[in-house]
Amino acid sequence: MPHITLHTPLGELTVFEDRGAIVALDWGRGVGPDDAAPTPLLQAAAAQLQDYFDGVRATFDLPLDPQGSTFRRKVWDALCRIPPGETRSYLDIARDVGCRSARAIGQANGDNPIPIIIPCHRVVAADGSLGGYSGGEGAATKRFLLALEARSRTGAAPGELPLSSPPTGGQHQGPNR
């Protein structure tokens, strides 16, 4: 499957394309031959991710095709409606998609195959605590992404707002998110 690996403050991220759409984002280096030239879509995804980490871009404009059940896709669509720099609770998302179970939302969040681009990091517990995050280095990665977006949203120059240092290692820990 065509993919591109890029270096980010969170370590290496690999973006995968299938049939003209982004289908996955994984922590770490992609597997498979690295000698194939990246497609124009993968180059666009890499550029948009670099702009995101540079604080220039807060949203993404890419064709996405995450594979999942109708329910999960509905949840992932709801995540994409959370404005950058803001959060919603698992219960908020449950209400938004007509579900009674915040736990089901958490499971769909954990199964998101395109984290960051589908912003599952913007979902927190009802009491405002971070909740879980299974991508990168867990809560430290989630905290970093939220701080990055808060800084970008306010228009603060780097250093004007505290931005927790990026987690180290950036190793994939099970399903992405």
From TrEMBL:
Gene Ontology biological process terms, A to Z: methylation
The record's subcellular locations are:
Cytoplasm
Q: Which PROSITE patterns match?
A: MGMT (PS00374)
Q: Which Gene3D superfamilies does the record match to this protein?
A: Methylated DNA-protein cysteine methyltransferase domain, Winged helix-like DNA-binding domain superfamily/Winged helix DNA-binding domain
User: What residue spans carry the Polar residues bias annotation?
Assistant: 166-177
Q: Name one Pfam family in it.
A: Methyltransf_1N
Which reaction is this enzyme known to catalyze? a 4-O-methyl-thymidine in DNA + L-cysteinyl-[protein] = a thymidine in DNA + S-methyl-L-cysteinyl-[protein]; a 6-O-methyl-2'-deoxyguanosine in DNA + L-cysteinyl-[protein] = S-methyl-L-cysteinyl-[protein] + a 2'-deoxyguanosine in DNA
Q: What is its main location?
A: cytoplasm
Region described as Disordered: spans on this chain = 155-177
Under CDD domains, the record lists: ATase
Record carries keyword Transferase: yes
GO terms (molecular function) for this protein are: methyltransferase activity
Q: Which UniProt keywords apply?
A: Cytoplasm, DNA damage, DNA repair, Methyltransferase, Transferase
Q: Any miscellaneous information on file?
A: This enzyme catalyzes only one turnover and therefore is not strictly catalytic. According to one definition, an enzyme is a biocatalyst that acts repeatedly and over many reaction cycles.
Q: Which PANTHER family match?
A: METHYLATED-DNA--PROTEIN-CYSTEINE METHYLTRANSFERASE
Q: What does this protein do?
A: Involved in the cellular defense against the biological effects of O6-methylguanine (O6-MeG) and O4-methylthymine (O4-MeT) in DNA. Repairs the methylated nucleobase in DNA by stoichiometrically transferring the methyl group to a cysteine residue in the enzyme. This is a suicide reaction: the enzyme is irreversibly inactivated.
Q: What is this protein called?
A: Methylated-DNA--protein-cysteine methyltransferase
From which organism does this entry originate? Paracraurococcus ruber
What lineage is on file?
Answer: Bacteria, Pseudomonadati, Pseudomonadota, Alphaproteobacteria, Acetobacterales
